[in-house]
Amino acid sequence: MQIPFVKMHGLGNDYVYLDRAAATGGRAAPAVAESRLPALAEAIADRHFGVGGDGLVLILPGDSAPLRMRMFNADGSEAEMCGNAIRCVARYAHDTGLVRSPRFSIETMRRAVAMEMLDDGRVCADMGAPMTLDNGAELTAAPLRPETLTIDGVEHEFTPVSMGNPHAVVFVDHLDFDLAAVGTRWEHHPRFPQRTNTEFVVPLARDRLRMRVWERGSGETLACGTGACAAAVAAVVTGRADRRVTLHLRGGDLEIHWSPDDNHVYMTGSASYVFDGTFTWQTTEQS
């Protein structure tokens, strides 16, 4: 199967994008059976035998919005939301004529996200109101507050936050440690039945945070948009930062604003092209 794709990244958080919305100026990708999408995600995201990336993103026609996004991690698991990916979808859609207005919405597994194309080329996304997590379930009314969790006999404080997907935000003194060993323990801890993304955050000032992130299903990535939102919220909740902060990630910076007016978190950052091409998917199974 020949599959046209576009590779894009948001601060180094790179995904392979398939256009299933037949954009003018874009190349429509062929349909793939639902049961084969996890295998395609694994194959196309492989950095040695595939295109390479943190996962696969499908751009689809929306129901109540112009577009819908589906996102698969590099291990084939489907995720509810990806902040960096949705900015890239917005830029691609606007550049190729899928949408004409600088303001539009993109549906995700959880909800439609309002997007705005800025004059400087960046994209602002309304990521909605943060929620807390109780054994994997989102709770809108419950207050956001730190909890403790024991890993290998050591008690850690973290703040559980959902931005449409689960996050555990851990404040640390430095980021010089083996994130793969630590992140895996958090991701698969029984406290998180759906696994979790984990953000390790160093507060630098009231308006600046530095972060490394371990994403469920993909490992360490250079940036995580929803993780940056969760980190900013947790920093406010624990008194470490103000509501408007810059997150310094390995791939670059994101501006996060947790508005006191509507309780929504607004994320602003870049969306960049890498290259496009055609992926030859060799599979013996019917797709």
List the SSEs and their pairings.
Elements lengths: L1 E9 L2 E7 L17 H9 L9 E7 L5 E7 L4 E2 L3 H14 L6 E5 L4 E6 L5 E4 L5 E3 L2 E3 L7 E5 L2 E9 L3 E6 L7 H9 L9 E9 L2 E8 L3 E3 L3 H13 L6 E6 L2 E7 L6 E5 L2 E9 L7
Parallel strand pairs: 2-3, 4-6, 13-14, 15-17
Antiparallel strand pairs: 1-2, 1-20, 3-4, 4-5, 6-7, 7-8, 8-19, 9-10, 11-12, 12-13, 14-15, 15-16, 17-18, 18-19
Question: How would you portray this structure in words?
Answer:
The chain is of the alpha+beta class and 287 residues long. It has an 18-stranded mixed sheet that branches. A two-stranded antiparallel sheet has the order 9-10. The model has no long low-confidence stretch (mean pLDDT 94). 16% of the residues lie in helices and 42% in strands.
Structural key phrases:
287 residues; alpha+beta; 18-stranded mixed sheet; two-stranded antiparallel ribbon; 4 helices; 20 strands; 16% helix
Choose one word for the global shape: globular
DSSP strand count: 20
Share in helix? 10-25%
Name the helix and strand elements from N-terminus to C-terminus, one letter apiece.
Answer: EEHEEEHEEEEEEEEHEEEHEEEE
Secondary structure tally, helices: 4
Task: Give the N-terminus to C-terminus distance in angstroms.
Answer: 9 Å
Report Rg: 18 Å
* SS-based class: alpha+beta
Specify the biggest β-sheet. Answer: 18 strands, mixed
Residue ranges: pLDDT <50 for 5 or more in a row? none
For the residues shown, what is the average pLDDT? 94
Compact overview of the structure:
The chain is an alpha+beta fold and 287 residues long.
